[in-house]
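Exercise 7b. Backbone tokens:
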């Protein structure tokens, strides 16, 4: 879908009473204008009361970058916990406990930045 189509879809989902919609990748530079424009629609009550959330990796640096680049208040943190994904993605540099610790650090930092809701998506 084109970005404008996603925006219209979120407006319709809001009118239907959907609680929350994930709208994009907060640390991807080419999506920042689209994300901030949609968050502005929340501020001026075009999309309200639905919550717009953004997707990032469950690491502190992504939380920092998302807060720096956007006015996001609802985050979806993505974490890989299966042995296959951990071995493939981190090539033995990180283990299960390391990944969980990174996620905990990201959640704590998000809370420190005032993020209102935090979802953790586990990729098994």
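Sequence design result:
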């Amino acid at each position: 879908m084109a970005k404008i189509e996603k925006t219209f879809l979120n407006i319709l989902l809001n009118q239907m009473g959907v609680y929350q919609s994930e709208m994009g990748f907060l640390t991807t530079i080419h999506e920042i204008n689209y994300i901030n424009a949609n968050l502005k629609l929340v501020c001026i009550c075009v999309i309200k009361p639905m919550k717009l959330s953004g997707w990032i990796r469950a690491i502190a640096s992504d939380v920092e970058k998302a807060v720096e680049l956007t006015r996001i208040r609802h985050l979806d943190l993505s974490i890989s916990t299966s042995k296959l994904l951990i071995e493939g993605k981190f090539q033995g540099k990180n283990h299960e406990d390391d990944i969980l610790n990174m996620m905990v650090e990201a959640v704590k930092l998000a809370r420190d930045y005032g993020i209102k809701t935090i979802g953790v998506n586990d990729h098994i």
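Instructor comment: The chain has a mean pLDDT of 90. The chain has one domain: 19-123.
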